Amino acid sequence: MLDAQEFAIEHPLSIREKVYTLILDLILSGRIAPAERLVENRLAELLGVSRTPVREALHGLEREGFVEAIPRVGYQVREIQWEEVEELCEIRQVNEAQAARWAAQRITATQLRGLRENLAAAEAEGEKR
Length: 129
What we know:
By secondary structure, the chain is mainly alpha-helical. It is built from five helices and three strands; from the N terminus they run αβααββαα. The chain has a three-stranded antiparallel beta sheet with strand order 1-3-2.
């Protein structure tokens, strides 16, 4: 069960952003499971806010593909299909390879030295464990 005090929002901050971030964190951490129904009133009470920022957050999460609207029911956390994961991995592989090529073409001697220092430090830390 979720604890309302754990997610209380300080009102001087951007409530809309905080609500969006909190719900997204709950989804990504698995505290709200795939296919679980999201009830505006319950989330608003849990987060200590009105329904408006919750509704706005759910609309944003739907646009981003994290939740889906169910007519006359509300929202539920969207289940990710394995095919989507494979597609995203392929896209990421292409993007990261291109980013690495561009970085290699543009790196300065100072940046390369810093990169080598970071790598040495990481290896030394790894050896300690």
